[in-house]
Amino acid sequence: MITKTLVEKSLSPDRHALLAAVSRVASARHLPVYLVGGFVRDLLLGLSPGDFDFVVDGDAPTLARALARELGGDATVHPAFRTATWTDPTGLAVDLATARTETYARPAVLPEVKPAPLADDLRRRDFSINTLALRVDGEHLGELLDPHGGQADLAARVIRILHPLSFQDDPTRLFRAVRYEQRLNFHLAPDTLALFPGAWEALAAVTGDRVRHEFELIFREPQVAAILTRLAELGVLPRVHPALHWGASESAKASAIPQLSLADWRIASPPTLDAFFFSLLLGGASAPETFSALARLNVNKPVFQAVTEAVALQPAWPHPSEAVTALDGLSELGVIAAHVLHVEARPALDNYLARWRFIKAHTTGDDLIKSGLKPGPEFKKILWTLRAAWLDGEVNDDKGEKTLLARLLNTDKVTG
Question: What's the pLDDT tens digit per position in 126-158?
Fold first, then answer.
């Protein structure tokens, strides 16, 4: 039993009011409603509970429509899955799911879903600590269901799957097991750990989108380096693609990501973390290996471009102008990813992002036309020579640029 006081203390006033509304409307219609999974797990661990995960032991669309009628807002129903979303008058969306069972036609494919009693719904879930269900309708608020030993595993700080074929049915659970293990500072149960190798074949059959989504969730975890280290230790990374690797060096490099000088670099919006971590996971890979791994994960075009640029970059620039020559052709995201990946080049990359890329010759193409030079390839050469002189400190003011320009124009007339 979980007391009402514990639930109330764990929620903000707005979230408590929302829970009370769902409880009242469900009770009036004799619809048993439960909070399931992560919310209950975190509540029992004394952590701040995340989003509500409501499961109706009956019909979720019926409850969503009732909430909209009595409290306002809108109900959106998804008949194929018997799920619904109630959007309250303030615009807050509340997801409701009908208790269901899942069957897998073959390993690694998405399951077929059918309505079922709550006991079956809890049985289909990934880990014992996510099978806890807290009833919240009416006077039943606080009744706790624990059919799979979730409380005991919480106390023992254990991650345990529910049946031996769990990882084969859904190999993405391999990633989630490690994610929970590191996030909660738990450990994988020995019998669960022993089942990892049996899922390798099924993991190879999982779509790139589903695997990439698991990586994206990991990249946003506070313990991201520890999770990736553990996935490497357990052999999961090379089973996704042989080019993926992670170790102490990558963890050290990743520690710089939260401290990136985005303001100094005039980056308007925070760049995606995916490019940084995939660059680290593929650092040292050949171009074909990089292309193959990113294709396996079906990453989007900006991330694909940035990662391939960062991994392929070979930074060795004695002069700023040489760095600019190499970097101007890359995407901004690619240069930042390179900053994360190539520690030895960080001073030059920082200078490029903060200063060098903004340095231009004061002379323009119009100025060259006025000087009598006809438009053509020589324009680009002259303007670059002037810019390079600024970058390398050979020119420091307008007078110096004009002197160099006069020499260049005179040389052009001679050679022309």
Answer: 999 999 999 999 889 889 999 999 999 999 999
Pairing of strands 83-87, 187-188: unpaired
Whole-number pLDDT of residue 416:
43
Does the domain spanning 4-156 belong to CATH 3.40.30.10? no
Q: Which fold has domain 161-240?
A: Hydrophobic Seed Protein (1.10.110)
Q: Which two tokens stand for residue 304?
A: 């694909």
Q: Dihedral angle at the C-alpha atoms of 113, 115, 117, 122, nearest 10 degrees?
A: 30
What is the C-alpha separation between 70 and 125, in angstroms, rounded?
Answer: 32
In this structure, what token pair is assigned to residue 362?
A: 């004061």
User: Where do we find the tokens 């900006």?
Assistant: 302
End-to-end Cα separation, the chain, in angstroms: 92
Q: What is the DSSP letter of 87?
A: E
- Alpha carbon 18 to chain centroid, angstroms: 29
How far is C-alpha 308 from the chain's CA centre? Answer: 19
How many whole angstroms separate alpha carbon 208 and alpha carbon 196? 19
3-class state of residue 86 by DSSP: strand
pTM: 0.90
